[in-house]
């Protein structure tokens, strides 16, 4: 087969560069393609800064002329001006006029504070993480102007691909907060590690009004001493657990939704394990000093949505278990001195599980069934809570 011409239509003014079988150029002629052979064409484009906060498109096309007939390959590259962070220290206030793209690690170091304003979009490259090392991270979204954290591949194919980056990692952080955020498509959405806590009674992380979903492992991973407070959380469709506490720690969750839909096999939504054998061969056993879940929905595909795996050490280990006014899917009722008034194996009636719409329906048994444990005035969507008879879960029906 003989191809008369291969032409980059934009010519010398094109933003694109073309290499055909090892030769660069904008026009190639009299190309002979033997039987059972193939051509390799490489196309690249450099999108410079355009001082416009909006997404822009660079288009061109490649024309193949063969025996008097034209065929075209359309080229389209999407771009947007952004702030880039590649293995750098970050602090202060991030502007929200352009997205922030993280390669490798963006590090909030010891005693530093990073504030992320409402409306900021953060795109994580493969394997990237926002790492808070003995510093403070405050994500200050609002209901109508959330902070969005996701992978940096924006093609439609990647809309629901898990594991595109690692996540947000709090390493012995100072008290930090996340409010009104969407965290999706990573490995572990939020990872808290606090082996040597220095915050006294304060929580390592206070996270409210946030949706965490489609991560390849965990929604929230609390490892070795982390202290987490959360309200109005919708955590769903992760590869393993919505919430995983490993080797001790503390949590206080209210009006949350921990769901195992989308998990591999019949995983529980909430898994509590107070020990772990580390790489040094030693099994570390620790306390669960606070284990509170109120007014929440713990549901999913498997029969057991809450799982405990605990060890004691000379009888001196604390496993705090406080559950009240929750809807729980469980093969048998949870037991303990501070476990009472929960509803088991009653369908909460979500709007549409397949479409990941986990608002409760108007006829949901969760409506007006909560207890007096609400702290925040509004639900995850900014709707006023009924303090006397709140709805169970992250959403308050109007």
What does this structure look like?
- This protein is mostly beta strands and 398 residues long.
- It has 2 domains: 77 residues, no CATH class; 278 residues.
- The chain is 0% helix and 48% strand.
- The strands form 5 sheets. It has a 25-stranded parallel β-sheet that branches. Strands 4-1-6-7 form a 4-stranded antiparallel β-sheet, with no helix packed on it.
- The protein is elongated, with a radius of gyration of 26 Å.
- The protein starts with a strand and ends in a 38-residue tail after the last strand.
- The mean pLDDT is 95.
Beta-strand fraction estimate? over 45%
Q: Please, what is the oligomeric state?
A: single chain
The biggest beta sheet is recorded as: 25 strands, parallel
Give the overall shape, derived from the CA principal axes: elongated
How many E strands? 36
Distance between the termini: 68 Å
Q: Decide which structural class fits the backbone.
A: mainly beta
* Alpha carbon gyration radius: 26 Å
Number of helices: 0
Total discrete domains: 2
Residue stretches low in confidence (pLDDT < 50, at least 5 long) are: none
Summarize the amount of helix as a percent range.
under 10%
| Overall pLDDT score | 95
């Amino acid at each position: 087969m003989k191809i008369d011409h291969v032409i980059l239509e934009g010519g010398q003014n094109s933003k694109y560069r073309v290499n055909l079988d090892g030769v660069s150029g904008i026009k190639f002629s009299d190309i002979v393609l033997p039987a059972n052979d193939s051509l390799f064409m490489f196309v690249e484009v450099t999108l410079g800064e355009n001082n416009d906060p909006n997404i822009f498109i660079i288009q061109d096309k490649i024309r193949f002329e063969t025996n008097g007939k034209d065929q075209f390959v359309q080229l389209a590259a999407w771009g947007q001006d952004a702030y880039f962070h590649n293995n750098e220290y970050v602090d202060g206030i991030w502007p929200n006029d352009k997205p922030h793209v993280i390669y490798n690690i963006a590090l909030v170091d010891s005693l530093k504070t990073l504030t992320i304003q409402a409306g900021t979009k953060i795109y994580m490259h493969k394997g990237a993480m926002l790492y808070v090392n003995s510093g403070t991270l405050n994500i200050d979204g609002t209901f109508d102007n959330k902070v969005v954290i996701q992978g940096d591949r924006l093609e439609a194919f990647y809309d629901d691909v898990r594991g595109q980056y690692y996540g947000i990692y709090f390493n012995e952080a100072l008290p930090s907060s996340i409010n009104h955020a969407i965290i999706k498509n990573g490995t572990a959405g939020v990872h808290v590690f606090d082996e040597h806590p220095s915050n006294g009674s304060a929580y390592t992380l206070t996270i409210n009004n946030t949706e965490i979903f489609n991560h390849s492992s965990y929604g929230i991973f609390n490892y070795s001493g982390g202290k987490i407070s959360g309200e109005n959380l919708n955590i769903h469709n992760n590869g393993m657990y919505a919430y995983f506490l490993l080797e001790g720690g503390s949590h206080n969750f209210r009006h949350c939704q921990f769901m195992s839909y989308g998990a591999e096999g019949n995983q529980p939504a909430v898994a509590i394990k107070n020990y772990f054998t580390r790489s040094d061969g030693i099994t570390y056993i620790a306390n669960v000093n606070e284990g509170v879940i109120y007014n929440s929905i713990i549901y999913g595909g498997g029969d057991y949505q809450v799982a405990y795996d605990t060890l004691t050490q000379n009888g001196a280990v604390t496993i705090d278990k406080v559950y009240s006014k929750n809807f729980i899917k469980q093969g048998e009722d949870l037991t303990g001195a501070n476990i009472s008034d929960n509803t088991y194996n009653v369908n909460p009636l979500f709007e549409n599980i397949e479409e990941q719409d986990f608002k409760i329906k108007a006829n949901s048994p969760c409506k007006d069934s909560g207890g007096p444990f609400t702290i925040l005035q509004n639900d995850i969507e900014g709707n006023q809570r009924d303090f006397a008879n709140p709805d169970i879960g992250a959403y308050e029906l109007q």
